[in-house]
Amino acid sequence: MTAPTNTFTTGSAVGNRESLHDRIYMLHKDDFPFQSAVGTGSAEATYEEWQTDTLGSASSSNYNLEGDDSTNAAVTPTVRVGNRTQIFKKVFQISRTQEQVRKAGRDSDISLQTAKQGRQIRMDIETSLLLNQASGAESGATPRKLGGALSWLTTNVSRGSGGSSGGFSSGNTAAATNGTQRTFTETLLKTVVKTCWDNGAQPSMVLVNSGQKQVVSGFTGIATQFQDAKDKVARIVAAADVYISDFGKLRIVPDRFMSTRDALVLDPDYASVFWLSKIKREELAKTGDATKYHLVGELTLKVNNEAAHGVVADLT
Predict the structure, then answer these.
(1) Cα 116–chain centre separation
(2) What is the DSSP string of 224-277?
(3) Between the chain's N and C termini, which has fewer beta carbons within 10 Å?
(4) Residue in 187, 246, 260 with CA at minimum distance from that of residue 220
């Protein structure tokens, strides 16, 4: 039914003021569990190196004759490993006019984009640190890349059929080869945690994506739930934030940037982000009636010893 004839409506009116709220609403996707958990340090070159070692195995035959001469045992050298730095960058350009006009929700588009793209670059960093990404030196038009956490792991791993580890060799890490995907089970997690402990590791976190977090919450090992009724409000407990294994507590931490097919078993004390240069905004050369900026920084991932961590890979 239409309005009566000659009814003056907003559709034909001229001069009605707009009602644009003076606020911009943005969801917060930028929490970074991996970056928040591991250490930080300073890089001094585009290829950072460190050494790893192992205690080896215990001997069950360490008995000796009285007064006997001592024989030299073979000395195992340390292992020298390293990772490449990677340059992270975001670029934006704002016209002079746009920066000067009155705007809703912000006073300056330069300031808004600096803040927004600063958050975006941290998201890119979290993603790269967790990737199954091989490291590589810069060559021609190919930029150098850091080896992501998943590319380092070779010792405490559980992979689907046909899957194989990457690991460090000849100056770079190689990406792991994907295997046949399978359901994430408590048995798979327990197997990797046991392997970690057998090899001297003491991980304290499991990083998973949202889907795998819900799978972990359904593990039968935590099927007995308790409700806190002190405030007389019944609560259904349907999530697991801590998994108590035979070898210690593991915090189950959802990470929006974690691979959907991997669960990273992590000891934060054995990983660090090393910065060659922290993220900063720089104004670039003007070429017209606009101002151009980039946010740029450079860093690498130091995996102190890959045997401190583990992975349950190839998950559906």
Answers:
(1) 19
(2) ------TTS--------SEEEETTEEEEEEE-TTS-TT-EEEE-GGGEEEEEEE
(3) N
(4) 187
d(CA 113, CA 290): 14
Question: What single DSSP character describes residue 211?
Answer: H
- The answer to whether 150 touches 176, Cβ cutoff 8 Å, is yes
Residue 100: partners with Cβ closer than 8 Å, 6 or more residues away: none
Q: Find the angle CA(222)-CA(249)-CA(246) to the nearest 5 degrees.
A: 75
Distance of alpha carbon 203 from alpha carbon 51, whole angstroms: 20
Residue-level pLDDT, tens digit, the chain, 316 residues: 778 888 888 888 889 888 888 888 877 877 899 999 999 999 999 999 999 999 988 999 999 999 999 999 899 999 999 999 999 999 999 999 999 999 999 999 999 999 999 999 999 999 999 999 999 999 999 999 999 999 999 999 999 999 999 999 999 999 999 999 999 999 999 999 999 999 999 999 999 999 999 999 998 875 555 555 566 665 656 677 899 999 999 999 999 999 999 999 999 999 999 999 999 999 999 999 999 999 999 999 999 999 999 999 999 9
Angle at CA of residue 71, ends 70 and 76, nearest 5°: 130
Nearest residue to 51 via CA among 308, 302, 311: 302
Q: What CA–CA distance (Å, rounded) separates 50 from 244?
A: 33
Distance in angstroms (rounded) separating the CA atoms of residues 107 and 92? 17
Angle in degrees, CA 300, 305, 311, rounded to 5: 90
